[in-house]
Amino acid sequence: MDDVEPQTCQDDELTLPRSAVNKMVKELLPHIRVANNSRELILNCCTEFILLLSSQSNEICEKRQKKTILPEHVIEALQELGFSSYVPEVEDVLSNFKTQLSHRNKGNKKLDKMGVSEEELIRQQQALFAEARQQHYEYELAQHNAAMEAAAATAASTHLALKTQTSVSQSNNSADDDDDDYD
Predict the structure, then answer these.
(1) Which of 18, 74, 23, 13 lies closest to 49, judged by CA?
(2) 59 inside domain
(3) What is the pLDDT of residues 74-119, one digit of tens each?
């Protein structure tokens, strides 16, 4: 009995993420509702299939005295396990992967053909960032100065208005005082 429990704990650690399997189920069967226990069964089957395929691929790799499992080992493992019908699709996926990989590498070659080192590109990028920061600083400074000028103009006009109002009030008071003299 003791041998079974560690194996169960180890199997629990070796599972696919539920969210990934659920997403695949939803994408493949968008109009069908799948019960939770069915999703769990699908998850367990996928995990078991991957463990079986990787174990068989590893055995083939060891027979050939290789240290890395290659795509050819996986394809041969599929055939040995009786999944030969999957081989054409696996080869298509492998071909697509190699094409994408070569396109990614070509992108890097374009960078090499530019004749500019990565360090130079980083320096140019940093210079552009510094220029952008300076422009932003100058813009903020201009906005600040405009706001200060507007505030100063408002304060000056308010001061002038108060001064004018005070002068008018004083002249009115003088006139009132003069009127008192005539009574």
Answers:
(1) 74
(2) yes
(3) 999 999 999 999 999 999 999 999 988 887 766 566 666 677 787 8
User: In the chain, how long is the greatest CA-to-CA distance?
Assistant: 131
As given in the structure block, the two tokens for residue 14 are 């070796």
For residue range 18-43, list pLDDT tens digits in order.
Answer: 999 999 999 999 999 999 999 999 99
Which domain does 125 fall in, by range? Answer: 116-183
**87/149 same-domain check:** no
Q: For residues 100, 101, 102 and 108, what is the CA-based torsion angle, rounded to 10 degrees?
A: 110
- CATH number of the domain residue 17 falls in: 1.10.20.10
Is 47 found in the same domain as 2? yes
| Chain centre distance of CA 42 | 30
The radius of gyration of the chain from alpha carbons, rounded to an integer in Å, stands at: 40
**pTM (predicted TM-score):** 0.50
